[in-house]
Specification:
By secondary structure, the chain is α/β, with parallel strands linked by helices. It has 6 helices and 7 strands; from the N terminus they run H-E-E-H-E-H-E-H-E-H-E-E-H.
Length: 218
């Protein structure tokens, strides 16, 4: 990624952040905790739990820095394709090792940007119970610290118009955790090293989620 391309992508992500601010605060009532823990500069990886369709946009609209999310290619349909690309999001083919997406994601980190990842791979219980190795790979390969992010909201309240979305104007808590390094300091990128890193990451993310639930009463 050239400096010009990186700057354009970052500018697009900032536009996406501003759109997210307007939409998320207009449709719901976000309460943000721990945003001060996000490093003010340099590469960062947001590891976000994924229980609602709105999790990505909610983090984009509440994070203190523009975020480039890895998003499944199925979301890039019709007018959403140029829009998501324009606001700096990264299209990924989950059916294979998408080298283009991997390169773009690493370029975001190399340029000192923020990469957002749903380490569970797809929307589920949002409890970090099943992690894919992709998060460990990006963290170990780039050396970027991971900031755990818990998005907590209810999808079973009256007023929910669309399946997978919290009820409109309901409170959604976004809790940012302490940054941490996934590697063991050796710089190894072997399969064993990545498996070990994934276990370390899972422990930290699960611990953050439990703490976030205690803090918010969720």
């Amino acid at each position: 990624m050239t400096k010009t391309t990186a700057a354009a992508s970052e500018k697009g992500a900032e536009v996406g952040r501003r759109i997210g601010v307007g939409l998320m605060y207009g449709l719901w009532k976000p309460r943000v905790l721990g945003a001060w823990k996000v490093p003010a500069s340099g590469p960062v990886i947001f590891a976000v739990n994924h229980a609602h369709n709105v999790d990505g946009p909610m983090v984009m609209g509440t994070a203190p820095r523009p975020t480039h999310f890895l998003i499944k290619k199925e979301a890039f349909v019709g007018p959403l394709d140029p829009f998501l690309t324009g606001i700096g999001q990264v299209k990924v083919d989950r059916s294979s090792a998408d080298r283009t997406a991997i390169t773009r994601a690493l370029d975001v980190l190399a340029a000192g940007g923020v990469l957002g990842i749903f380490p569970e791979g797809t929307r589920g219980e949002g409890d970090f119970a099943s992690l894919r190795a992709g998060l460990a790979y990006f963290a170990v390969r780039s050396g970027a610290p991971i900031v755990p992010v818990a998005v907590l909201g209810s999808t079973d309240r009256p007023g929910r118009l669309i399946k997978g979305l919290p009820a409109l104007r309901s409170r959604i808590d976004v809790v940012f955790g302490d940054p941490f390094d996934a590697g063991d300091g050796s710089g190894r990128r072997t399969r064993k090293a990545l498996d070990e890193a994934t276990l370390r990451i899972q422990g930290r993310l699960t611990g953050h989620l439990e703490n976030a639930r205690r803090l918010t009463g969720r």
